[in-house]
Amino acid sequence: MGAFQRLFKGSLRAPEVGGDAIKEVFQNNFGDQEPIIYEYGEVPVVAYSADDPLPHFFYSTFGISRVNSSTPVAGMQTELTIRIPRDEALPPSWPAKLLNRVAQYLSRTDNPVEPGHHMDFDLPLTDDSTLTSLIFVTDPIMGVIDTKTGFVRFTYAIGMTPTDLNDALIWDARKFAGVFGEFFPLGLTDPDRAPLRDIDKARSILDDVIGRQGSSLSAVMANYLDFTDDDPLRLDLTTTSAEHLLRAVRYRIKFDRNFAFVSRKKWVEMVPGEFEAEFEKDHLRLGIPDQLANEILATFGTRPGAYAMTTAPLTIHVIDPTR
């Protein structure tokens, strides 16, 4: 019995567990092709060669959802997918390792990954790649299926350059993926790709919509976050959160929209309006007037240090989490 039969044991004729519906989707899309199976952790990753709508390699996890169960569960389950250009005879292993890395993160943190989410590795996705992050959307071909245990979404990862991720965050990740697909069919993750905005027509589209619509990103997770009710108020952020703060002020607060930082212990909500700090045990609601927003954009930076504002009693302390 081959690896395909061992992993995908069971009949497609009489589905009994959640994984049977997933196997059926694979068979409908790839026929009787036997996939290459990568097992780097608890969740295997399968890879197929596809010809339609253009040649590419397709990868999917098989086991984040309840593939071996027949017990229905509430909520949306997921399997992760990614597609890359078919430039080699056999699918390379790095996309499988990448999906496994994301799957391990989901298992370790119990955080869901949903359309519109992103994951920034701050390192190349593979050796010498221009891509350093992922944004997630619903898989454009696999979509959402109904299984014995409930609905399972194939959540599609698209590799992004730092420039791409910035454009996605200051606008809308799902809408960005839509524009991306107009220039890169299927949203293939090409590890050597240049940023989307290097294409003149794409840059014009992005500049227009970002300038008119601002950002849809209303909150981000923060690895570290703290605040004090001293005078002046002090807000502690990491260097990564400092980057999000600048984006939030320019593309949320200046568009009269709220923004929040959320950590495991505390969260900070920023709202346009008069300067006001409302404290609870684990929550700070901070009013940001236009004058303070302008000062943050003009004087605040992402390097570690203390940034004392002059238009409001506020000091923002930026911390390097690696030190």
Notable characteristics:
323 residues; alpha+beta; 8-stranded mixed sheet; 5-stranded mixed sheet; 28% helix
Strand and helix order = HHEEEEHEEEEHHHEEEHEEEEHEE
**What are the segments in which pLDDT stays under 50 over at least 5 consecutive residues?**
1-5
Class derived from helix and strand content: alpha+beta
Strand content: 25-35%
Helix content: 25-40%
Rg, Cα atoms, Å: 22 Å
What spatial form do the alpha-carbon principal axes imply?
globular
* Tally of helical runs: 8
**Distance N terminus to C terminus?**
52 Å
Main pleated-sheet profile? 8 strands, mixed
Secondary structure tally: strands:
17
The chain-level mean pLDDT equals 93
Description:
This protein has 323 residues and is an alpha+beta fold. The protein is 28% helix and 28% strand. It contains eight helices and 17 strands. It has helices at residues 3-7, 18-30, 94-109, 162-170, 173-183, 200-213, 239-251, 290-299, and strands spanning 36-38, 45-50, 56-61, 77-85, 118-120, 133-138, 144-147, 150-160, 219-221, 225-228, 233-238, 259-262, 267-272, 277-279, 283-288, 305-308, 314-319. The strands form three sheets. Strands 1, 2, 3, 4, 5, 6, 7 and 8 form an eight-stranded mixed beta sheet that branches. A five-stranded mixed beta sheet has the order 9-12-13-15-14. A four-stranded mixed beta sheet has the order 10-11-17-16. Strand 1 and strand 2 form a beta hairpin. Helix 4 (162-170) crosses helix 5. The chain is globular, with a radius of gyration of 22 Å. The protein starts with a helix and ends with a strand. The model is unreliable at 1-5 (pLDDT under 50).
